[in-house]
Amino acid sequence: MGKLDLFEINFTNGQDVFYGGQLVQGHVTVQLNTEIKMRRIRLEFNGGARVRWSESRSTGTTTYTRVYSSKESYFEHVIVLFGRGLEEKGDNPVLQPGNYSYPFSFQLPKQLPSSYESSIGRVRYTVTAVIDRPWKFDHKCKRTFTFIDALDLNLETNAAQSAIQQGEKTMCCLCCKSGPISAVLKLDRLGYVPGEDIRIHGEISNHSRRKMTSSFAEVRMTVQYHTPSKTKTKKKSLSKICHGPIQAGGDDIWNGEVLGIPPVPPSNLRGCDIIDITYTVTLNVDPSGAGMDLVVPIEIIIGTIPLRSVAQQYGVPAPMPASIYPTDNSNIAMNSITSEPPNYYDLPPPAYVESYFGKVDVHDDDDNEHTRGNMEYAPVYAYYNWNEHNTNTFVAPEK
User: Fold this and answer.
1) Measured over all CA atoms, what is the biggest interatomic distance in the chain, rounded to whole angstroms?
2) Can you give the residue range of the structural domain that contains 199?
3) Which of 293, 309, 325 represents a domain boundary (last residue)?
4) In a shared domain, residues 160 and 106
5) Phi/psi at 311 (5° precision)
6) Locate the Arrestin C-terminal-like domain: which residues (predicted)?
């Protein structure tokens, strides 16, 4: 491989998941078989969000494509590991053959949005090492890490409250008005964390003269991507469970059926102004033939720290100020964390599970064939696997 046998970034203790105010620590390893003349080895820490999509329209024989984009920067920090300082003049140093390990440390800001990846928009955090060479291409190595914004449900006013919502729709049958279909949806509470179950209570009454094809409950994720000139909205079904047909004049009862919550980012994506994320639970009635579904929605809060009252149902001791020390769980893709911010409750540690939407390609515009590192990446999210949750309700992610 020429002069450079090894060039990589490693985090201390393999930790690549961080919370606000924590230190990103590790070392850059360089292994040379021949000397290299360079300006410096620098390390770049970057955090930011980007939204980008294109839309095409045709006029006659001409097709126009318009690109919508926006971006935010949360931090940019550079440190020099070897060689000349960024503003330093003088001769370029030579690094002799051998093995080198350069330690680094960078403290993250306390308030940042959680990592998020999609084909349209992202919140991404990276560390990039660069061997800056005069009059030659630079060697680069990049490592992406996850940041989690700690959304504590115990601090959310409505998280522990129950909710009820109802809806009604009048059907038409052969140009004659038919009776209505009505639905009531009830939730025990509004706040949940990934790994928990949502219990669905409700009732559907079909007063029409038509048979309804089915009813179903689902957890929906709505993401809004904002640019100065346009907003794009994408909706994704995360978890779903179905009931069968409802005969004319019949009822359908939901009595605590379970919807699971997969590993997804917390609600709102706090701190990001160009991407918004909300979650809703819906009870839906699908009419046979022509006609729009009756949809009864309740917005919920997806957090990263569960309600104490819920945690105690699983035998957790009474809460008291403490630090959380998450541990590994070998059957799930995750990473260990040395500590979380202080003053959290004495709750069981979560696993850290790969995003339900899977890995994405993290090549950036300035990457090329000389950029090293794993370019397949997925954020991980806090996941509380306290019981035998119903993963059978998860909907296959869109590709």
Assistant:
1) 89
2) 153-309
3) 309
4) no
5) -60, -35
6) 177-307
Are residue 145 and residue 18 in the same domain, yes or no? yes
Nearest in space to 122 (alpha carbons), one of 309, 265, 236: 265
Q: What is the DSSP letter of 152?
A: B
Euclidean distance between CA atoms 354 and 363, whole angstroms: 19
Q: What is the pLDDT of residue 128?
A: 94
Query: What mean pLDDT comes out for the span 279-289?
Result: 90
Helix (H, G, I), strand (E, B) or coil at 309: helix
Average pLDDT over all residues of the chain: 86
Those residues whose C-beta lies under 8 Å from the C-beta of residue 302, and which sit 6 or more positions away, are 151, 192, 193, 194, 261, 264, 265, 266, 267, 279
Task: Answer whether residue 248 shows pLDDT above 80.
Answer: yes
3-state secondary structure (DSSP) of residue 46: strand
Q: Are 337 and 15 in contact (CB under 8 A)?
A: yes
- What single letter denotes the amino acid at residue 256? G
In this structure, how many other beta carbons lie within 10 angstroms of the beta carbon of residue 162? 11
Residue 232 CB coordination number (10 Å): 15
Count of domains forming the chain: 2
Indicate the residue type of 56: S
Neighbours of 300 (CB within 10 A): 23
From 306, 328, 309, select the one nearest 318 (Cα to Cα).
Answer: 309
Helix, strand, coil % over all residues of the chain, rounded to 5? 5, 55, 40
Residues 264 and 223: their CA atoms lie apart, in Å, by 12
Q: Residue 106: which of 87, 130, 81, 78 has the closest Cα?
A: 78
Contact criterion met (CB below 8 Å) for 192 and 186: no
CA torsion sign for 387, 147, 360, 29 is negative
Q: Are 238 and 262 in contact (CB under 8 A)?
A: yes
Residues 278, 327 within the same domain: no
d(CA 339, CA 323): 7
C-alpha to C-alpha distance for 301 and 163, rounded to whole angstroms: 12
Q: What is this structure's pTM?
A: 0.88
